[in-house]
Amino acid sequence: MDFQLASDDPDRNLVIAQLGPSWASMCCAHSSTTFLWAHNGKQRNGWVQLLPNGKLSTTWCLGTWSVLANNVDVVDMRFGSFQHICHLKHDGSFIVEQKYGLRSGQDCYKVDQKKTVGHISKNDQRGCQRVPGQKAPKSISSGKRSKQFDDENSELSVSTSFSQKDLQFGAFFAAWSEWRAKKARCLMEAAVCEGTIVEVSPVSEPYS
Questions:
Q1: 3-class DSSP assignment, residue 45
Q2: What is the distance between the alpha carbons of residues 173 and 84, in angstroms, rounded to a whole number?
Q3: Which residues pair with 46 in a beta bridge?
Q4: Are 122 and 43 in contact (CB under 8 A)?
Q5: Which residue in 51, 116, 111 sits closest to 85, CA to CA?
Q6: Tens of pLDDT, residues 153-172
Q7: Burial of 13 (0-12, 13-18, 19+ CB in 10 A)
Q8: pTM score > 0.85 for this model?
Q9: From the CB of residue 112, how many other CB atoms can be counted at a distance below 10 Å?
Q10: Conformation bin of residue 22: beta by default, left when phi > 0, alpha when psi is -120 to 50
Q11: H-type helices in 4-125, by residue range?
């Protein structure tokens, strides 16, 4: 079967051409390179989509993917802070047999933790329209963050978060700078009114 001509979607054809035969056959059969992500093997809490040239789009962020050179039935998906080693199953899904930290290289699966599974989604249906860079739609759930979402993205927010201490210092510094500038203006105005020369020290950062 010519996998490159199996779809009328040019991008999908490019992806299929880069996959191993078993993955390519599955994607052709479902006209899709999108998989619904089930963090604990059952509950689906996101999606991942294989894009051309080894690019990966997910519910949470962008990433990369590649086929292992020594086993074409295994796809390496990397996004967020993790490397996911995805082994093809025979029911239109894959299982993340190994999960490693990209920085540490250590196995991130906990003892007795349920392994993540990805289910092929027909016609690239995602179950939601959220994509990286776009505002997520309002949830129809109770509004509580799922444990699966927090676990999968626990390290994604580290680089963009800041501590309460940083916030408090920022507010303090802004107020201190405003007070310092106001004091300088008052001294200058007083000097002009009295006809005296007052040397005003420049504003410096606290604790410098």
A1: strand
A2: 43
A3: 37
A4: no
A5: 116
A6: 544 444 333 344 444 556 66
A7: buried
A8: no
A9: 5
A10: alpha
A11: 10-18, 21-30
